[in-house]
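Project outcomes to date are best conveyed with an example. Our students and postdoctoral researchers have been running inverse folding experiments weekly, and each run begins with a structure described purely in tokens. The record below, which covers 85 residues, was selected by the lab manager from last quarter's runs and is presented without edits.
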């Protein structure tokens, strides 16, 4: 498997981060209107969002597969939460 260039990683990280931010905003609105179970799920996920945000910020200096994986994993979990709302 060919390794990705730094610019390719930065581009994919930026794109994935944009999706994550959109989902985060959608989830915030839905959670505000949701049940206590949904609010608990949101509260449990928020620390992961903070981790992903910090990783994305660091990616500007050092793009890596691990950063991209953190963002994608968090995005997947957030998509599932938003879909369940």
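After processing, the design step wrote out the following sequence:
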């Amino acid at each position: 498997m060919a390794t990705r260039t730094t610019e390719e990683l930065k581009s994919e990280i930026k794109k994935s981060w944009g999706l994550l931010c959109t989902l985060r905003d959608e989830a915030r609105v839905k959670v505000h209107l949701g049940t206590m179970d949904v609010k608990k799920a949101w509260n449990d996920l928020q620390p992961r969002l903070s981790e992903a945000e910090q990783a994305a910020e660091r990616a500007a200096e050092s793009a890596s597969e691990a950063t991209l994986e953190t963002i994608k994993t968090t995005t997947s979990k957030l998509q599932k939460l938003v879909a369940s709302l």
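The helical segments are 6-32, 36-59, 65-84. The CA atoms of residues 23 and 32 lie 14 Å apart. The training component of this project remains on track.
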